[in-house]
Structures are given as C-alpha cells and as structure tokens.
C-alpha cells in the first residue's frame, strides 16, 4: 500500500483519490494527503520535530558535511525508509512552491534544522547557495530557502545509497544510476525518480547545465525500467488507468530532462510513445482564417486540430477560479483570435492545383514528426475532420503538456525568429489557450507566457505581450513588493495544489527566470530603465552586464562586472563574461582557476584559434585543442564544444582526434548531418572508405538543409567503392538540388559517362522493359527523362543521351539528341572569335553527319516501312553548308574548314 500512496504522490493525484481503508500506517496516509493538498510545509515541520534537536552551527565552514551528518544521524536513523522519503518529497515540494509556483509557504526552515543563534540567515543561505554551484556556475543568490533543496538532495542520495554529488569531484566519472525492473524495488525506483526531479530543480538554478548532475538525472530517466519498477509492486486492485498515467508522466519527464540538459534531439521517440500511450490525436494543417476586424476574405493560416482520448481526466471544474487572467488585445485592427472557416472549404480546383505542386515525399500524413502535418484535407485523421476549428473540445492535461513539450523541442531545434516556426508555435499555443472547458493553472499560465514570448516580437501585439508577462510575474506572489497590475486577493486564487499539479512534467521556470526574461524584453524595445530596475532587484549582475553589452554599452557592462567580482571574488562566470568583453585571456584563466567554468576554456580555445590582430599572436592549434580538451573533461554533454574540437582536429590534420570528436557529436545528436559528414571526412583521410561511406549514408538521410557538399562527398566515395546504385541516387539528387541554381553544371559528366558505360554494357531486349533491373530502370529514367530537362548548351551531354537511346533501340530519339548536340555547339556566340570553339563545332557537325549516315535509314518510330530520316543526305548537306557560312572569311584557312570540305565531298 505504501507503493500505491507514493504512486499517487508521483502523479500528484487529487486528494479525494486517497481512501482511508488502505492497509498501511495512518500517519503515512495523513502525510500523503497533506502533500497532495499543497501543505508540504506541515509535513516538513512535523517530521523534523520528530527527528530531534536542530544542528548546532557556529560557522558556515563545511556546512554540507554537517548537514550530511545531521541527515544520517537524525533523519535516516530515526525515521523508517518510507517516512524519510516522504520528508525528502516534502522538502522538495516546499522548495518548488517557494521558488517556482508561489505563494510562499509559512515556514522558517533554517530554524528547524540549524541552531544558528550566532549566524544570520543570509550567511547560511549564501553558504548553501555556494554549495549548489557547479563548475563555476553560481546558483542564483536570492534563491528562497536553499536548505530545502540541499536537504532533499542529501536525503535522496542517502535513501538511494548513491555517492553524494556535493562531495564528488567534478573531474571524476559520473556515478551512473542503473535501474533494473527485475532487481530494483518499487520504493527504490520511486526514490530515484524523486532524485531526478530534485536534480532538475538544481539545474534550473544554474545559467546552463553542466557537471555531473545532468548525466545522473539523464541516467535515471533514460530507461523505461524506472516506470516498470514502480508499477510491478502496485496492488492487484489498482486500475489500469493509474498504471497508464505512471508511464505517461515517465515519458513526459523523459522529454523534459532531454530539454533541460540540451539533448533535445532525443525528445522525439518519447513524444511519439507518449502520444500513442494516451491515444492523442492531433495534426497541424492549414485553414482559411480571418485575423483582422476589416478582413472580408479569409486567407490561409495554420491550425492544430486535436482531440484527447477518454481515459485521461480533464481539469476539475474549480480550476478556472485560480487561473491567471488572459489579457485581451484591445486592438483596433486585430481580432482577439482568428476566425477559421471549416476545414476543407477551399475550392476543389485549388486543392488539385496545390496537389500537383507537391513532391511525393511531402504527400500524406507523417506522424513520426514533432508536429504531424496534414497537407491536404484527405490526410487529416477521420476523427479530427469533424472538429469545429473555432470551438475545439478540451484536451486532457497530459495532452496539453505534450503540446507544450513539442513547442519547446521545436524552439530548441529551429532557427530563432523564423516566421514559419513562429506560426507553428502560435498554432500550438492557440490550441491550448482557446479550447473550451477548464484549464490547469500551471499549463494555462505557461501557455500564456509562451504566447507572450511570441507576441513581444511583433509590433501589433507587443503591448499585450509585455502586460501579460508582467501580470504572470506578479501572479506568483513571490518577493514582489510593488505591483503594477491588480491581482485577485481571494485566497482561493493562490491555492498551491493546482499550481503544483503538473510542475514536474514541465521544464522548471523559477520566478527570477520569468523576471529576467521580462527584463530582456524591456531591453529589446528600449525600455532600459525598467530592465535595469528588474536586474537590480534580482541582483543578477552578469545578466545585466550581458544586456548592456548587447546594446553596445560595454563600459557600463565592465563596471557592473567589476563590482560583482569585488563583492564575490569566487564568481567564475562573472570573470569569464568580463574576459569575453575585454578579450583578455588572463580573466578566462582566472575563471577556470577559481571555478572550472567550462565556458572560460571554450573562450580561450576560440581566442587562440582566431586571435585578434591586436594581440600579435598567430593561430595556435595546440593551445586551442588543449583548452577544449580541458572543457570537455569537465562537461562531456556539450555538442557545440565537441563539434568545434572535431573541426580543429580536421583543420590541423589530427584525424584520430577528429574522428573521436565527431563520434561523440553523433552519439549526442544522431540527426546532425554535418557531424556525420565531418566524421566521414576524418575516416577518408585515414583510408577507411567503408566507414566513411556508412557515415555519409547517415549524413544524407539527415540532410534536411539540402547541403550539396554532403551529397557530392557521398557521390565521390560511392564511386571509389563501386556502389553504382548509390552513385546513381546521388547524381539524381544533386541534379534535383542544384538545377535551378546551376543548370547543367549540376551534372557530373565523368560520373554520368561511367554510368552510361555500365548501362549499355548490358543487354536490352525490346518489349521487355519490365525485366530490367532497378539500376537499369533508374538509370534510363535519369539519362533519358531528367537530364534533357536540364541540358542547355552541352553537346557532350546530348551525346550521352543519344548513346542510351540507341541502346534502347530508339534510333529516332538518338538522332534527335545528336541534332540537339550539334545545335548546342553551333549556337555558341564565340564561334566567330575562338578557334577552339570553331573546331569543337566542326567535330559536332562530323558526329551529326555520321549519325545521319548510320541512323537515317534504320526503321523509324512507326514500325515497318518507316525510316528514321528519309532525307538524311539533304539534312547533312544543309548542316555542313550552314556551318561553312558561319566560318567563311574567318576560318576558311583553318584545319576545321578543310575537314568540312572533305565531309561535304564525301556525301
């Protein structure tokens, strides 16, 4: 029964789902109900009172060691494993309430744990914040009650019997967590799960993920065995829907973890699995919409059609009372929301025209994408076609979270400020905000926030966006002394229960991150004073300096950073940013010395790779590689650093190093085409052509940007390995990719000639084309159908087409190609001034006459009795005569002229 209670805690179930007849400790049931009611601080109070007196502390030295001893001696020894885990959960939930969701919990945690009559709380808090610093990245100094998180982490490490990350040297190997469904007990798996949540909360306090914490959190949430281990010991009477929810939140948190540690390329498989698990049906499609008040005709727009399965419950009916206000646009031009016409109302003839323009690969519904796209009405799933686009049904909370996670994945994997991407994101947000029914506080407020982020980039919506962001910041009710926007004073509107409901499935956004983002938006529109006021209130010196530097006021940025390092000489990040502004290597070295801050080493590497002219230094590969190596030893999950490391290896000829670096890149992101291509380049230099070819195959399959260099390398290696099917495929793709820009120059003639030689070396049987091999059919299509649409001036190309047509027993088509080859050569404007061009044209004329002579009397296209060219002698003489008239008085004393005379006399 304890496992069932903890399953409800993982799911943040409604407190009414906890019945009183569970065969377990009544106190455990009470604690569970308090946690689910958002009163975790009461659980902390009661359990810490139970374990005995507070810890005597006279100074903050070795505070983590003292707290670890307090946990082992007081908590672990005096509480059973179940209550110890409940305390760890309560500590974490209280910390999240105080820093992420609000309102502040009425608890003085320092006095409960520390008997610090001598010390001020600010001293203790600063020491605890410093203990959460990772690789020189300082934790936010004004974090509320950091002891809650520190205690929760220490306690969870003890419960799971894992090495402490507070004491582990960051140079050591990460203590990877292994979970096995057969061996790991349910309670241990639950403890690991909560530890992963606590680690992600820890990472949210840092400017960017680094150190061992991302690796450990990822190792916990990377295996489905975690969910299997939790479910296996649930009582038999538990409904399947509850088990299904556990698997659902597992996949959602797996995606969240990937986003947090910046391995967003791993999100898609889990998103697909959770979509199938919840039977969530949704699609991105187009529909005509009116967006302004004066618009008479609807124009195309994007819309998400979505419908939830019935097994997932919707938000309860009381939720709307607590939700933040959604500000109206109050625009004289724009509608509050688009008004869509019914899906498929587009005229049939226009649908047909659009259909003809689509490539085969773009047709249909592709479900295995971040956003499944239906290009035409018939591709929309049947159950979604009947939805009213202006009044779609409410989605389950888990499905709304799926959409938000897809939004974050798209944002992290797409170019910034891409208009089409922003339209897709707007469609996602609109589907969540404008759906009928009630909405959860966390989901709705996050959706409003993301809508505001998009709207603050557009002139017509920026006012609503900034007001909405200001309102959401103040809505948290955490450490905001002055309010610009009136808030609902009703106590019920600040119920922590609804705010904590889905906090663990969405990326954590602490209150200061919301505030600093608002400050960035103020800076972007020139409201400098308001932005500075926010940064001063948040005491975020580094962010303030970066914003000043971004607007060109580097002197002010330096002044702020100098004040920061004077106040806190151990802030490695501040030293590194100051080094970036001044381009001073000594500051980066100082940053590395005091905090092992990886960005400092990355900056040093870039500096020595491309030193400024004022430094008087030459490019130094050895030093740059050394600094990158130091950076990667500290944090191995940084894709960009591995990529730069590999590029330097290629550039300076260290192919083993480059191969290792790009192997790491593709293990971190196996969809990165350039990483695969560069890995192949390192293998080519080492003579490993087969390995290089495999890498290039992966590169071409991932090449969404259509990089012709990758395909050209693929072609070259395929030729060397005699992989002619792949050579043909690459040739076709290169022509298709480059024809609009380069025309016939996109044709690799030597390779095409080799393909033609291979093709015509085989036998062709008239009337049995269905028996041709795949290579033969594809090659014929390429040479005879695709190339003629690209050739403009190349006689050589036309002669290749002629050879294949002759092989196909189509002499009339071959003769036609010879005529086009001659025409292409004779129309060269340089024929009257360049003797080489004249001689080439004469050769083309000789080829044409020979073609007339050999093909003219063959059986024509109309069968027996018809000829390819009945008057071939007349046409041959006419061609010679026309060419001689072009060369008369200019080339009549050349060798070419003599050849033409001989040719004319021979007919």
Largest sheet: 3 strands, antiparallel
Number of helices: 41
Large-scale geometry: elongated
Strand order of the largest sheet: 4-3-5
Helix-and-strand structural type: mainly alpha
DSSP strand count:
7
Q: What is the mean predicted local confidence, pLDDT? A: 88
Structure characterization notes:
The chain has 907 residues and is mainly alpha-helical. Among the domains are: 122 residues, no CATH class; 115 residues, no CATH class; 200 residues, no CATH class; 60 residues, no CATH class; 52 residues, no CATH class; 84 residues, Serine Threonine Protein Phosphatase 5, Tetratricopeptide repeat (Alpha Horseshoe). Strands 4-3-5 form a three-stranded antiparallel sheet. 44% of the residues are buried. Keywords: Repeat, TPR repeat.
Concise summary:
The protein has 907 residues and is mainly alpha-helical.
How is the secondary structure organized here?
Blueprint: H1 2-11, H2 26-36, H3 40-51, E1 55-56, H4 63-78, H5 81-101, H6 109-113, E2 114-115, H7 121-131, H8 146-159, H9 186-204, H10 213-221, H11 225-231, H12 240-260, H13 267-277, E3 281-292, E4 299-307, E5 334-340, H14 348-357, E6 365-366, E7 373-374, H15 382-385, H16 397-413, H17 419-433, H18 441-455, H19 462-475, H20 496-500, H21 511-524, H22 528-538, H23 541-550, H24 554-567, H25 572-582, H26 585-595, H27 598-609, H28 621-634, H29 639-651, H30 655-668, H31 673-685, H32 689-701, H33 708-720, H34 724-742, H35 749-760, H36 774-786, H37 795-807, H38 811-826, H39 835-855, H40 872-887, H41 895-906
Pfam families: TPR_8
GO biological process, one term: fungal-type cell wall organization
InterPro entries: TPR-like_helical_dom_sf, TPR_rpt, TTC27/Emw1
